[in-house]
Design a protein that fits this description.
- The protein is of the alpha/beta class.
- Helices cover about 30% and strands about 25% of the residues.
- The chain contains eight helices and twelve strands.
- It is globular.
- The N and C termini lie far apart (about 45 Å).
């Protein structure tokens, strides 16, 4: 993180960063697009268990990036809509939908805060938001109101996200290093990408925000949804700390190391 001032247009800075990284993500091993096209499962076991059967359901994926998770739900029987602010990412998602024969999938290039208007106030059985999305949004209440407006009566929102507690820990995974209650925008100026740390990039400035668990839950409740569960998980999807050990597709603390929550998931319903 740098002490640089927040860009006048933080959204444009973030979009430029994501746009530039689309071809890196599409061609690299991290997302393994060829493997996905060949049938590899993109969703995590806990998501499949917590969301349940999606056959015949309508699902919108907010901040969908290149659409792998979105299309994974389509493969499981949902009629899906993916929305992302990166036009290059949406173009890739569209191409992948055609390649795998997901004929009912559609992708829309738009800011998440504009989703209700862009989608013509359509509502969905499931509103899905995957990992690594909320940190890009300054106003969690506005996000919750937007997401809740997209949930059809009797439907639900499902959020899986990296746990904010992990963001305050030092590299040893046990020492509290930063402020959990920091809410000011954080400016980063870093080359590469989590999918390829050594990639050569030029659009390197991003702006992120930290949202506590209590804020997220309260925002959903205030938006009119009923929280069914909040689950905290002791694993993550990448080596967030050097001490983490790979366990299949997950990374966990070794035996004897104090465990902390690394991912959380929420399911919240709308009354009929």
């Amino acid at each position: 993180m740098t002490e640089n001032p927040v860009p006048a247009d933080w959204r444009a800075a973030n979009r430029a960063n994501w746009d530039e990284r689309v071809p890196i993500h599409t061609s690299g091993a991290f997302y393994d697009v060829p493997g996905f096209v060949a049938g590899r499962e993109a969703l995590r076991d806990f998501e499949l268990a917590e969301v349940g059967d999606v056959t015949g359901k309508t699902l919108v994926h907010l901040q969908c990036h290149i659409g792998l998770d979105t299309l994974a739900w389509a493969r499981r029987g949902a009629t899906v809509t993916g929305l992302d602010f990166s036009a290059p990412a949406v173009a890739v998602a569209d191409g992948l939908a055609k390649e795998i024969g997901a004929t009912t999938a559609r992708f829309v290039a738009a800011d998440v805060y504009d989703a209700v208007d862009v989608l013509d106030a359509q509502t969905f059985d499931i509103v899905y938001t995957g990992l690594g999305a909320l940190c890009w949004l300054p106003d969690i209440d506005r996000w919750a109101r937007t997401a809740a407006a997209l949930v059809a009566p009797g439907g639900f929102l499902y959020l899986a996200e990296f746990h904010p507690f992990a963001d305050i820990l030092a590299e040893d995974g046990r020492t509290v290093e930063t402020d959990y209650f920091r809410r000011e925008p954080m400016v980063w100026d870093e080359p590469g990408t989590y999918a390829d740390l050594g990639a050569e990039t030029t659009a390197n400035v991003t702006v992120e925000w930290q949202h506590g668990i209590g804020e997220v839950v309260s925002a959903l409740v205030n938006a009119g949804l009923r929280v069914e569960f909040l689950h905290e998980h002791d694993f993550t999807l990448f080596p967030r700390f050097p001490v983490l050990q790979q366990d299949g597709g997950a990374y966990r603390f070794p035996e004897g190391h104090p465990r902390t929550p690394l991912i959380y998931s929420i399911r919240a319903t709308k009354a009929v």
